[in-house]
Design brief:
The chain is mainly alpha-helical. The protein has 6 helices and 6 strands; from the N terminus they run E-E-H-E-E-H-E-E-H-H-H-H. The chain has helices at about 20-45, 60-65, 80-90, 95-100, 105-130, 135-164, and strands at about 1-5, 15, 55, 60, 70-75, 75. The strands form 3 sheets. Strands 1-2 form a two-stranded antiparallel sheet. A two-stranded antiparallel sheet has the order 3-4. A hairpin with a 6-residue loop joins strand 1 and strand 2.
Length: about 160
């Protein structure tokens, strides 16, 4: 099944494969979960009265990870960057954006998910190799980001299969 998209400039029509309901539901579920965790981590970063519900002993130590020198990038708290990522991704999976035939939106979904995964690789490397600590909340965000990347890839392969 395809949706006909008419370009505003010349009336040219392009066919954009419609997304199955499972794709849309799963994309929103993952994005909202990531948004929720990112809000929680951002609030705990800025409000000293909000302690993270997480172990603070042994290898699992959210406090050690979220207060380390690696918890900011160019002075910007990483939870805030995560929050911005999930807000932007939510915009890219709105019904309008998914129906649009604009290549920038499609490539924006793919690029943002890919950059998210690269960032996850960096953060997990820092946690394991440098800090020797793991933050379970951060791991949740990492898993959600990887799942969104896989979902976007599956959608791209499905789209390519329908276009040919």
């Amino acid at each position: 099944m395809t949706q006909e998209i008419t370009a505003r400039d010349g009336g040219e029509t392009t066919a954009e494969p419609s997304r199955p309901l499972w794709f849309q539901a799963l994309a929103w579920l993952l994005t909202l979960a990531g948004l929720g965790i990112s809000v929680y981590l951002t609030v705990s970063h800025y409000d000293a009265d909000v302690a993270l519900l997480c172990s603070a002993t042994g290898s699992v130590d959210c406090h050690a990870v979220t207060t380390s020198s690696y918890s900011e990038l160019a002075g910007i708290p990483l939870p805030l960057l995560g929050l911005l990522f999930f807000v932007a991704f939510a915009a890219l999976i709105t019904p309008w954006a998914l129906r649009s035939g604009l290549p920038a939106l499609r490539w924006g979904r793919l690029a943002s998910a890919a950059v998210g995964v690269l960032f996850v690789v960096y953060l997990v490397t820092v946690e394991l190799a440098v800090l020797h600590k793991i933050c379970l909340w951060c791991t949740g965000v990492h898993i959600l980001t990887i799942l969104l990347f896989i979902l976007v890839l599956v959608d791209e392969f499905r789209r390519i299969g329908q276009v040919d």
